[in-house]
Amino acid sequence: MTKNKRLYNELRKFVYLKKVLEFDNKFKTRKIIMKKTTLSVITVLIAIGLPRPLVAQSDQDRHAHGNGEVHHDHNESKQADTSAGKVKLVTGQGDFVFSWDQELTAAFPKDAIEFEPRMHGGFNEDPETGIVYTGIPGYGLCSISPDLSKWKTIGTDERLKDNIHGIVFFIHKGEKFLAVAQQEKRVLVLTLDGKIVSEILKPTGNEFKFKEANKFYTFEDSNFGVTDVTYLDGIIFVAHGYSKGDFILTIVEKDDAWSWGDLAWGGKGDKPGQFQTAHGVYTHEGYILVANRAAGQVVKFTKEGVYVDIFDDIPEGSLVCNLSYKSEHYFMNALEAIGNQKSAPIYVHTSKHLKSTIVPGDLEIPNLTNIHQVWPHIITASDGSKQLYLLVHGWNKGKYAVLNLDM
Questions:
Q1: Which residue from 221, 227, 120 is spatially nearest to 168, judged by alpha carbons?
Q2: Beta-carbon count within 10 A of 340 CB
Q3: Closest CA to 262 of 228, 214, 298, 224
Q4: What span, in angstroms and rounded, lies between the C-alpha atoms of 144 and 134?
Q5: Within its chain, how far is the Cα of 119 from the centroid?
Q6: Beta bridge partners of 39
Q7: Three-state secondary-structure class, residue 266
Q8: pLDDT tens readout for residues 113-164
Q9: How far apart are CA 126 and CA 375, in angstroms?
Q10: Contact (Cβ atoms closer than 8 angstroms) between residue 119 and residue 137
Q11: Choosing a second label site near 95 at 20 to 30 A (CA), which of 179, 216, 345, 372?
């Protein structure tokens, strides 16, 4: 018998046994035979010159989608790095596929690691300098260098060690400031070196030209559930979503002091302009955008609080926490995984269409399950080239992570 004929018969034997095993699930020794036969056939394939990685990749795909569902290009979870002989984990689709940057993730300050599990906040950035700002409960307010390699704490006031649930950088009357939302405690306005300019506490119930908000704050059992802050045209907009009083409130400056303004809107409900946990607030192109978490929406308002519309094409079941904008796209995250996802997803969006779903859990990042905020950041190299990164602020188990756009 010639060599080619022997190989041909071996392949026929494999096909036959495979069919038997697929249809006779009562065959007790099927696993043992299948393993031996598969090994034999792989040997044959190598002998006739077919590349083994094709077989390995096929098996890998079956393992990832063992329920038999069609993949629909939902996630590019692995990519062969043939030059290094390893498998590189990636996640996302189209122009927005990301991998885990372990080196920049490890730049997280060593003396803050004990506080990392308590992380429950987000990021914001000075667009002029590229410096990123965030908070770590128990550790303090931090700045991150434009290349994401160096962290330092800002200010000495003990209030800055309370949880900074939301943060915004802004320029007001030519000066740079930060505002932070510390749920159940306060909103602070401060300089970039950590000097507190104003502390804004829970409203008393006579501040707003919005009866529902005033009525809520007159109750003794009302809480101060501030979750996020943003700034537009001289006004700080405050999301008050951890509460039965689900509002957007405003803070204004007079004589260098900040206090409650009279504009407020929203309220708990499912009507246009109402909220089911107004969790994140962000400004873009002169509009106020609210992450309406429990409703799975991003809601667009004028700066006067007039409802405009909602974003389309957000996957059902997404508890949208926050959003931001960079590279002509919005970046937003759900709080928790949907279906069989390995972690909460990150969405790249145009406001009309979903462009990529990024699942950091596919990258095998330890302890990253729920996501509280994601922030897009661009690093410009010495040669002028630009690289997009995503800063991820985990929740539940904490966790800081950096993803980089896979070029």
A1: 227
A2: 8
A3: 214
A4: 8
A5: 14
A6: none
A7: strand
A8: 999 999 999 999 999 999 999 999 999 999 999 999 999 999 999 999 999 9
A9: 13
A10: yes
A11: 372
Give the sheet arrangement for strand 320-326, strand by strand.
320-326, 329-334, 346-349, 354-358
Of 84, 95, 102, nearest in space to 406 by CA: 95
Containing 21, the helix (H) or strand (E) segment is helix 3-23
DSSP-derived pairing of the beta strands 175-182 and 166-172 = antiparallel
Mean pLDDT of 187-205: 98
What's the rounded Cα separation, in Å, for the pair 205 and 94?
Answer: 50
400-405: strand order across its sheet:
91-93, 96-100, 400-405, 386-395, 370-380
Q: What is the largest CA-CA distance in the chain?
A: 99
Residue 313, classed as helix, strand or coil, is: coil
Residue 398, φ and ψ in degrees, nearest 5: 70, -155
Which domains does the chain show, CATH number per domain?
3-92 (no CATH), 96-405 (2.120.10.30)
Question: pLDDT confidence of 59, banded at 50, 70, 90?
Answer: very low
Using an 8 Å Cβ cutoff, are 230 and 236 in contact?
Answer: yes
Q: Of 35-49, 225-239, 318-332, which gets the smallest average pLDDT?
A: 35-49
39, pLDDT greater than 50: no
Q: Look at the block and give the residue holding tokens 């690093």.
A: 379
Are 216 and 223 in contact, with CB atoms under 8 Å apart? no
